[in-house]
Amino acid sequence: MSSRKPRSSKAGGILKTNKGSGPSQPASTSKRSSKQQRFDEDNIKQTYHPVDKDYGHIKVDEPPTPFSEMEDGSRPPEDELDANILAAKLQASMNKGPRVLESSSSSDSDDMSEEERQRRRAERKEFERRRKMHYNEGQNIKLAKKLLEEESEDELC
User: Looking at the predicted structure, is the pLDDT value of residue 61 above 80?
Assistant: First the structure.
């Protein structure tokens, strides 16, 4: 019951054709040429490639890379590692204890008074408490919803 036309067996384009819309005469050559695209090349050249236009292309004269390879391709003797020297240095570093790097803040802590240390310790504890509260916020919301649901169930019963 639809008003759709039956499909033909040939696959057609989506554009309308002139089959039923006008006279059955073939289109003249003048009409065909008016429908074709035509580029005015002189206009394009004047618009996009004017003679006095500077496109900013700069020629960069870079010096050659200062790298020069060895003539025979081998390493110079001062760059080669001696395994015995390397082992001795490694052994010497193993005998030493670990080094502890002290930051400048540790020297500042020596200069702080006991009151200042107490204040900083209290600030740090307060910060940690608030951080824990913030991270537990989601769990608190879930718990509150659960309690509200239980309360509403108790009231309904």
Answer: yes
